[in-house]
Amino acid sequence: MITSAGTPPTPLGRRLGDLLGTDRVVDDLRRYYGAGLPPGAASFTGNRFEHLAGGGDRPGTADVITAEDLIAVETLSVVVPVRVKLDLLEGALGARLAALLGAIPADVDLADADASVVADGSPAEKAWHLLESRPGLGWVTAGKILARKRPRLLPVYDTVVRCALGRPRPFWRTLRTALREDDAALHRRLLDLRRTAGLPETVSALRVCDVAVWMGHRALHHDCH
After folding, report:
1. Looking at residues 117-129, what average pLDDT do you find?
2. Which of 17, 47, 140, 219 has the least C-beta neighbours within 10 A?
3. Residue 3 domain flag
């Protein structure tokens, strides 16, 4: 890591440190994923997002959108318009996205990724803009599609999480900086939370972060502007 201990945290790093340090975080993670409960007993359908059909980044389909990917995305309370689904599965949109996904690494965490991976004009940013511009899709669903395909690198990010974190911009790059500072203290904290909550390693550090923040803020979200 290029950052060093003792450097003051960024505003996002400080905010995440506060949110991830609360007493409720581990219980929230266990409740969301149904840790210790029989399969299907958890009340949040999003606990299948990264696991359905072996995950969006599984070998053989990591660079293409599948029907299982679209079902997985909709477990996070969004709807992909039918025309967009068909275009992703059988049309030019799917082909264009596949070409971009092929240039986005699937085996690296955001905390370890080179800055160029999420820079302006990167394949990841181009993929987000490609999806976000589709009628009826929007920035939240675009991000969730990419998070399904690159769960270690690209975060789930919605209005609840954005509100909780104070609307940092640009989010991917700001989050990468926060995860790397102080010898990757936040990234290591997320891995510790995953272990303590008893979650499988297929739940990425980014997803631990998203779920922890979302669970902690969702009841307060109506007060955000």
Report:
1. 98
2. 219
3. no
In a domain, 2, yes or no: no
Q: Report residue 66's pLDDT band, with 50, 70 and 90 as the boundaries.
A: very high
Q: Supply the range of the domain harboring residue 98.
A: 11-223
How many residues comprise the chain? 225
Residue 6, in any domain of the structure:
no
Side chain identity at residue 70, one-letter code: L
HSE at residue 93, side-chain half, CA atoms within 13 A, is: 20
Q: What is the DSSP string of the chain?
A: ----TTSPPPHHHHHHHHHHTSTTHHHHHHHHHTTTS-TT-SS-GGGGTTTGGG-TTSTTTTTS--HHHHHHHHTTS----HHHHHHHHHSHHHHHHHHHHTTS-SS--GGGS-GGGGSTT-HHHHHHHHHHTSTTTHHHHHHHHHHHHSTTTS----HHHHHHTT--SSHHHHHHHHHHHHHHHHHHHHHHHHHHHT--TTS-HHHHHHHHHHHHHGGGGGG--
Split into its structural domains, the chain has a count of 1
Flag whether pLDDT at 112 surpasses 60: yes
